[in-house]
Structure formats: structure tokens, C-alpha cells
């Protein structure tokens, strides 16, 4: 089984800023979210044989919270979307070209300087294909970021047609995907932190 988790909260998440590839650590709340995810994993009886992560601190820290004692293997293909000149932009005051993109990810290309969604699907899909054989009969964890995670889900669910781009994936939300006979099943959200 393949499990995919979005990292816990950072200071820039809290401030609603596009952090992209800037390397920020988890705040106390993010560490607590990771512990809650770890508690759920323990209660489910899940035991990871391998843990992969984006190289950015927030994803590595989340992986370490969720799967303590297991070596975290980082891979650049799991890194967050490159927001280019828009990195650090407040989501309360997005530029009109960014707002247009965010209103309809599936049908509007990313603004100039941003990584295109098709490229994210290609690189994350390439990573998932590279570990497909490992997922048979064992549990694997991937710790990544919201947009990179959506890229993985779009890749795995061939009928998605952009459905995941507009989904809100919360901090430390977990999806699972079955892998049998060398084929991946349909992704399913299995854990969310209730923030209300």
C-alpha cells in the first residue's frame, strides 16, 4: 500500500503565503499535526518498510514524526511546485494572473515563471513508477507538499481530469493507494485533522 502525506503546518502556511521551494521548518502546530497522523497510523497497524520525502525540511520533519526510526530517503521529484517570481506572495493579495490560474487550475496554464502542472504530474509520476515494485505487499510512505501531492494523485487516478487540482488538501492529510499486480488503484483520503 502506498500512503501519501502532506507536510505539517509552517509559519508561511499560517500566514497564507506561497512558500513553494523555500525551505521552512514546521512550527509547533505542524509537529503536533504530524504526531496526530502518527497516532492514526499506529492505531491502523500500519508499519512502513520505506519512507520517501521531498528534500525540504517541512516534508522531512513530517516523515520523521510519522515514521520515527525509519531512514527518510529524499528525492527531488517530490519537491513542491516552483512558483518562480510568485514565491512569497500573499494569498490574501494574489496578482490577477495568479488568481486566474488558481480559479481554474485544470484549464488555465500557470503564469510565466511558474512550473506547469503537467510537469509536476510528469516528475511525480516518474517517481511513483520508480517505486511501484516496492509497494507490492508492503507499506510505503511519501511525505510531500500540497501541489506535488495533487500531481501524484492526478497521475495515479487516470480518470481525474484535473479533479485533484481544486481539492483542498490539509496539512498532514493522508491518501492511500493500493498496489496489486504492479498496478495502482484509485487514491482515497483516509486521514484528515479536524481543525474546527
Low-pLDDT regions: none
> Class, according to the CATH hierarchy?
Alpha Beta
* Mean of all residue-level pLDDT scores: 93
Looking at CATH, the homologous superfamily is: Phosphoglycerate mutase-like
Rg estimate, integer Å: 16 Å
The assigned CATH architecture is 3-Layer(aba) Sandwich
> What percent of residues adopt helix (DSSP H or I)?
25-40%
CATH fold-level label? Rossmann fold
Find the count of extended strands (DSSP E, 2+ residues).
8
Order of strands in the sheet with the most strands?
A: 3-2-4-1-5-8
Q: Into how many domains do the coordinates divide?
A: 1
* Structure annotation, total helices: 6
Q: Note the run of SSEs as H and E.
A: EHHEHEHHEHEEEE
What can you tell me about this protein's structure?
The chain has 196 residues and is an alpha/beta fold. The chain has one domain (2-191): Rossmann fold (3-Layer(aba) Sandwich). It has six helices and eight strands; from the N terminus they run βααβαβααβαββββ. The strands form two sheets. The chain has a six-stranded mixed beta sheet. Strand 6 (179-180) and strand 7 (183-184) form a beta hairpin. Helix 2 (28-44) packs parallel to helix 3 and helix 5 crosses helix 6 (146-156). The longest helix has 17 residues, at 28-44. The chain starts with a strand and ends in a 5-residue tail after the last strand.
Amino acid at each position: 500500500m502506498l500512503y501519501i502525506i502532506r507536510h505539517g503546518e509552517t509559519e508561511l502556511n499560517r500566514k497564507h503565503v506561497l512558500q513553494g521551494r523555500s525551505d521552512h521548518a514546521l512550527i509547533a502546530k505542524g509537529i503536533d499535526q504530524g504526531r496526530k497522523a502518527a497516532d492514526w497510523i499506529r492505531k491502523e497497524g500500519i508499519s512502513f518498510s520505506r519512507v520517501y520525502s521531498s528534500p525540504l525540511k517541512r516534508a522531512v520533519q513530517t516523515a520523521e514524526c510519522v515514521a520515527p526510526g525509519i531512514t527518510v530517503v529524499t528525492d527531488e521529484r517530490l519537491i513542491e511546485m516552483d512558483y518562480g517570481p510568485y514565491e512569497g506572495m500573499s494569498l490574501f493579495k494574489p496578482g490577477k494572473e495568479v488568481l486566474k490560474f488558481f480559479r481554474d487550475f485544470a484549464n488555465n496554464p500557470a503564469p510565466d515563471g511558474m512550473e506547469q502542472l503537467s510537469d509536476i504530474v510528469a516528475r511525480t509520476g516518474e517517481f511513483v513508477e520508480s517505486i511501484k515494485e516496492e509497494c507490492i505487499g508492503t507499506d510505503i510512505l511519501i511525505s510531500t507538499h500540497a501541489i506535488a501531492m495533487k500531481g501524484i494523485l492526478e497521475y495515479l487516478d487516470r480518470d481525474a481530469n484535473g479533479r485533484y487540482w481544486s481539492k483542498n488538501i490539509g496539512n498532514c492529510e493522508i491518501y492511500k493507494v493500493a498496489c496489486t499486480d504492479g498496478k495502482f488503484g484509485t487514491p482515497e483520503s483516509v486521514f484528515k485533522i479536524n481543525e474546527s
